[in-house]
Amino acid sequence: MTAGSHAPGFAGPVDEELRDQVASHLARHEDGVLPIVQAGHPVLRRPAVPYTGQLGDLFPELVEAMRRTMHAAPGVGLAAPQVGLGIAVAVIQDAGVSDPEDADLRERHPLPFRVLVNPAYEAVGHERRAFYEGCLSVSGWQAVVARPRTVRLTGQDEAGRPVDEVLTGWPARIVQHETDHLGGGLYLDRAELRSLASNDSMMRFWGQTPDPSGAAEALGFALP
User: Of 101, 178, 192, 217, which residue is the catalytic one?
Assistant: First the structure.
């Protein structure tokens, strides 16, 4: 596909200025691993621009760079603003956890790689679950976040095909976390700040179990 055309499934024209910006950004990092911006960078607090095909044939290159960056971090999700690009695209993938008790408690099972374009979510039901959560753009820290256990995800995939599905457990949490990024949010906006812990402290005091009830009792915050 030539520059100036648009990606299949996306109706909008190529934005040559944005395309050149992204191409330059990718060219500076030939291994495909992009720097992850940290809290305080303005791009993390601006709502991302909906993706309508502005990058044309460059879009798959951006997706691949985001995939490599997520794996290298390592993380289970990455939104374009986290690599300095304010467009509504995220990638997610989770290998799950080997501990069956942990997997069952957090409902954390393998989630195949996928691309979310212009995602949105809404809670399904009223059940909320609280667990420690971290972020590649808030490096070194974790905090407890209560989120809906089940959500309805809508949006598009990398080919522009519509997405409309229901997710439960850890996959639902990942989708919420990354979609929040695209609205200019960080997980800390939803966190119990009394639970905030460095990674070292979290592992030392609360890493024996994913159940945050011990942390809630000791640190003085409520769980749903």
Answer: 178
Which residues are part of a known binding site for Fe cation? 135, 177, 181
Distance, in Å, from the CA atom of 214 to the CA atom of 195, rounded to the nearest integer, reads 11
For the CA atoms of 41, 131, 94, 182, the dihedral, rounded to the nearest 10 degrees, stands at -30
Active site residue 178: yes
Give the 3-state secondary structure of residue 196.
Answer: strand
Q: Where are the domains of the chain?
A: 16-219
Binding residues: 135, 177, 181
Q: Which of 67, 85, 88, 65 is nearest to 76 (CA)?
A: 67
The domain defined by 16-219 folds into Peptide Deformylase (3.90.45)
Nearest CA to 122 out of 154, 92, 90, 93 is that of 154
Candidates 187, 193, 189, 217; CA nearest to 205 is 217
pLDDT digits (tens, 9 = 90+) for 164-220: 999 999 999 999 999 999 999 999 999 999 999 999 999 999 999 999 999 999 999
Residue 168's beta-bridge partner residues?
A: 150
Whole-prediction pTM: 0.94
Which position has the token pair 């940290």? 38
Q: Which residue has the tokens 């080997």?
A: 98
What separation, in Å, do the N-terminal and C-terminal C-alpha atoms of the chain show?
50
